[in-house]
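User: quick one
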Amino acid sequence: MNKIHFTIHALLLLAMPLLLLGIIGKTKAAFAGRVGPPVLQPYFDVLKLLRKGSVFSRTTTWVFKAGPVVGLVTALFAGTLIPLGGHLAPISFEGDLILFAYLFGLGRFFTVIAALDTGSSFEGMGGAREVTFSCLTEPALFFGLIALTRLCGSLSLSNMIGSGLGQAWRHGGASLVLVAASLFIVLLTETCRIPVDDPNTHLELTMIHEVMVLDHGGPALGLIQYAAALKLFILGSLVVRIAIPYGGNPWTAWGIFALGMIALAVVIGIVESTMARLRMAQVPILLVAACLLSAFGIVLVAR
Amino acid sequence: MNEWLVIAGALLAAVSGMPSVFEHRTGGKGERAASALLVLAAVSAITGAGLALAHPSTGIDWGWSVPGGRFTFRVDGISALFVIQIFVIAALGSVYGLDYWKQAEHTRDGRKLRWLYGFMVAGMALLVCARNTMLFMVGWEIMALAAFLTLTSQDDQRPVRQVGYVYMVATRLATLCLFAMFAVLYSATGNFDFAVAVPINHGAATAIFLLAVVAFGLKAGVMPMHVWLPGAHASAPSHVSALMSGVLIKMGIYGLVRVLSFFPHPPLWWGGLVLGLGAISGVLGVAFAIGQHDFKRLLAYHSVENIGIICMGLGVAVLGRTLGNPALVVLGLGGALLHVWNHGLFKSLLFLSAGSVLHATHTREIDELGGLGKRMPWSTFGFLVGAVAICGLPPLNGFISELLVYLGLFKSAAVPQGRLWLAGAFGVPTLAFIGALALACFVKVYGAMFLGEPRTHHASEAVESGRFMLWPLGVLAGLCVLVGLLPWVVAPALDRAVAAWAPEMSGAPNLALLAPLGWVSLVGALLTLGLLAGGFLVWRNLRRMPAGETGTWDCGYVAPGPTMQYSSSSFGQTIVGLFSWALRPKVSNPDTRGLFPHRDAFTSHVDDVVLDSVLIPAAEAGTRAARRLKWVQRGSMQAYLLYILLTLIMLLLWR
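Assistant: Done. Structure below.
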């Protein structure tokens, strides 16, 4: 039985992330009164990029080529640790949540040094912003995880946001609402969405993630886009699971999870369409607010 | 047998510098003999420590004519871990010195340095195995004074002498506190030997604990007692910096661990204090590191940070002992001691790689470097491995020890009774914050030093270092990978140390049961394979499809130059801004008003706030006050003879 669920896990993990990007794009287009690109456009883009040739800057070394690979492989491994829709994750053990967070750290390390490898000041700026903001998202994430461990009494993601989450909602609902809100801000920051970063901006000086990959092209850019979508999917699944703690029939759970992810993509699209970007100097304030939200979540658990 | 092997190692280390002394000052045989002797010493001592971990023995206990002294020497679980670390790094550092500090190039101080290096190693080996106060102090003082003389190797330079004075004041203060602490211990137990679990009354216990925190905190560099550390690590020759940062400051941790082992029922606030000091050192240590421009000072502040992480683990262990919760003791102390080891490995790797850069470029300014990855590929790779490990990222060793500390904090956050869980609830995000800041700092320094284009001729003319400097880097990098991939190999040694520290927890579950070491090992191996496979696929794809070459995207600017690259200070600017309440950065902005502004420069630097804004003004005020007593020191022999006579009479009367 587990084998079938692990297969579904793997299929969703590999196939669904780019769909979320397509849905976000469609939502934004709807708000702007446009038709917008097809929902499957991100798949076509990545496939096209993978078939293309590469151009490298003369300044770069092997680090530049390693960055996208490390980013993708670490995201895939994080994807095997995260339980989807309340099912057991393929790899789960006591303490896997720390490995989960640090895998993204490894990916970030190599993404940023790949950016710095070009010697471009734009990419330096992007890298500096990425690591600076992550200094504030990591504590927010861990505050949230602490609240979850206190509620569920386990250090394994599969138990923390597994089938017992419904129980936890009954005695710690208020705290879970705060944690979900905080994790949603973390999600928007880590995946470089408005109000922190604008994935569609066209001015190098104002970007975060897009500017770090300015010099990447062809297959490398394809890997980066896919890894970014994976990260959105994985962090998003955390938020969706906390928001919809369905614990009934496992097959229904998959359906609810998939619908939840699509709903999340729509919500992100709405946020992107209705909000303006924050000024760079105000982003830390938003992130400290995220930390405080989940810290209050802990305080509520303690009551 | 075990103890004898360690003693043989210490003696060999102590005499390792001797052959040089009998040789002409430009001769090269003495330095090779010194390295060979130190490697031999390491083999002997590490074998002894390994045997001691497998079969603990009762040790050596001889009489000694020094009042209160006994020659009590025993290698238990805790000592063995430290002995292995001391000798691994000392031997590698000594080999590294063959190229880094060649006798032929350093005729003035090479022999002195080698001689004292061996002494420092012997002193440390003595102090971690001593079970008697006097013997401990002998080891401690040999180490402290030898360290002073090695770090001031280039005492013809004024800044080196200044940091030497600061170190001297700090180490004397530590020794003073140690004397006081041992005096209190003696008055409480009536014994100069280290005895575990002697009942000590409450007041004396508090005094011992606080004195130990100050004395050992000064040596370990716990914030705000870290003032000597950044300057000393920056000015010492790099292999000495590696030994100091990797091993010597850990002697403070050793002392704290040893003294805390005397108290089976510590009050709750002890653990809280150690945890709190650890958190402060961790966060502020890395924040100060981000503000630095000198890469060796930067690495030194990271030692403060890592000592903080170690103290957080130790704090969890003390809390666990108070509560009688074996899981917290095993995870906290296991994590702290493994981090002691790991930090020794990756920090010496970083200092030795940085030393290789310093040797090749003759500058410690990060913003004068760049593009070294193409010129010094092996040193660059060594630094990269060290950087990934120090950020605590999988699959390297730093992750394992941080994982143990995390688990300890998470477990203390799950403790149902009392308000203790708050320690964990705020400790975990603090550790995450430290990790993210460390990542920011190492991305910055790695990028600015090794990637991009050379900013000055220092960097563009650099060439790779010699084989004696590169081999130790390879060994250390290999050890970082090994401990990261096979953590369950070292777990029994940590269990042994925990048993020595808290004997009353003899029924405690072992580390392998409490921490998912097997899983982490498996995922680490799979991750490594995945990365290698991914890299292979990309490499094959690039070979099939020829790639074009061009310049970096410059927005169409016609004359991009290397000085336009993002510098390390710009990279850290936002974080330094977030911490400006503590770092007090000194910034001077250029005046660019008007149509044709004249040439001007932007500068910013972060000094050590505790030293420059608190201690030095306080010391100056003290000096001014002391001038009133100047008449006592009138410089005439008769007056001093009179003082001696008066003292003698007073002593006679008092008796």
